[in-house]
Design brief:
By secondary structure, the chain is mostly helical. It has one domain: Classic Zinc Finger (Double Stranded RNA Binding Domain, 2-Layer Sandwich), CATH 3.30.160.60. Helix content is 47%, strand content 7%. It is elongated, with a radius of gyration of 15 Å. It is found in: Nucleus. Belongs to the krueppel C2H2-type zinc-finger protein family. One of its GO terms (molecular function) is DNA-binding transcription factor activity, RNA polymerase II-specific.
């Protein structure tokens, strides 16, 4: 699977789709924490970010 923007190749179509966001600037993954408006182009980055909310709630 090849990126039509830069020619980079990927073994899986899902990896190509994630890579395409780097060209389009799309950030389809949104933090659901109230008051947090952060968005991410990579799901794993959202998951890592969500852990910050869990840690801050424990520290209250």
């Amino acid at each position: 699977y090849r990126c039509t923007h830069c020619g980079k190749r990927f073994a899986r179509p899902s990896s190509l789709n994630t890579h395409i966001y780097s060209h389009t600037g799309e950030k389809p993954f949104e933090c659901e924490e109230e008051g947090c408006n952060r968005r991410f182009s990579v799901l794993s980055n959202l998951r890592r970010h969500a852990k910050l909310h869990v840690r801050s709630q424990r520290g209250r």
